[in-house]
Amino acid sequence: MITLPLWPARVDGLFVFTRFPQPGYTKTRLIPALGEQGAANVQRQMTEHLMSRFHTHCRNSSFEQTTLSVQVHFAGGTAEQMASWLGNSFTFVPQCKGNLGERLRGALQQGFASGLNRIAVIGSDCPELDLQQVTQALQLLNRYDVVLGPALDGGYYLIALKQPLPFLFENIPWSTKRVFEKTKAIAASHNISIALLKPLSDIDRPEDLPLWYALQ
Question: Helix, strand or coil for residue 111?
Fold first, then answer.
C-alpha cells in the first residue's frame, strides 16, 4: 500500500488512469485489428502523448494560487516499471482491485483523504485532451459539484470533483454507451449540479484509429 503525502492548503490533483502496455492486457478491443503487440503499442504511444503535454504544463504548475499535483494511477506492471517508462516526474499509484467504478472511487477517496482540494480524473485514450480542458474543469468546480467531459462513444473522458461522491460510480454499465447518461441521472437523483465540457473522441475501437493516426 502506498501512503500519499498530506498536502498543504490549495493543492489540486490530476489523476491519469492508464495501464502498463503489456501485450494482451491492454486496449483489448483493438486486438482484432492490430494484434496484441499493436494494441499495446497504441496504448503506450497515447499515454506518452498525453503525459508529454502534462509534464510540460502541469508539473508543479499553479493557477488560482493552487498547485496541481499529477499522479499516474496504473494497472499492470509495477511502480518501478512505470517510472522506467514515463520517468520520475510523476507520482505512480497502483489502482485498487475491482471494476472501473471501484477503482475510480478508491483513487478519489485516497486523494481527498490526503488533503487534495479538487481532483480531475482522466484516461489516457483521449488524444485531443489538453491542459485547457483540465483547467476549465477545475475552475468550474467553484460553481458546480461535478464536471464531466462527455466522450462521443457515450462514456466520459474526464470527471472532476471537490468531494468523493462515491455513489456516482455505483451501478454504472461500464464500457457501454450508457455510462455518461447513467452518471448524469444518478447525479440528478442526488441533486448534484453538473457542468459539461465539450465532447471529445477517445480511442477504444478499430473505427476510432483514424483519429489517432491523424494526430501523429
Answer: helix
